[in-house]
Specification:
- The chain has 53 residues and is mostly helical.
- The protein is built from 2 helices and no strands.
- The radius of gyration is 29 Å and the shape is rod-shaped.
- Keywords: CF(0), Hydrogen ion transport, Ion transport, Membrane, Mitochondrion, Transmembrane, Transmembrane helix, Transport.
- It is found in: Mitochondrion membrane.
- It holds the Pfam family ATP-synt_8.
C-alpha cells in the first residue's frame, strides 16, 4: 500500500485551512441581521385607565 508524501499532507492541510478561512470570511460579511421596523403605534402602548375612587 503506497504512503502519501509529507509534502502532500502539508499541501492538503494548507488547502483545507484556506478553504475554511475563506468560508468563514464569506459568511461573516454575508450576515445580515433582521432589523425590526418599529412604527410609532407599536412603540407607544397606551391603555385607557378608568380610575374609580
Amino acid at each position: 500500500m503506497p504512503q502519501m508524501a509529507p509534502i502532500s499532507w502539508l499541501t492538503l492541510f494548507i488547502l483545507f485551512s484556506l478553504i475554511f478561512i475563506i468560508f468563514n470570511i464569506v459568511n461573516y460579511y454575508n450576515y445580515s441581521p433582521n432589523t425590526p421596523s418599529y412604527s410609532l403605534e407599536s412603540k407607544i402602548l397606551t391603555s385607557p385607565l378608568n380610575w374609580k375612587w
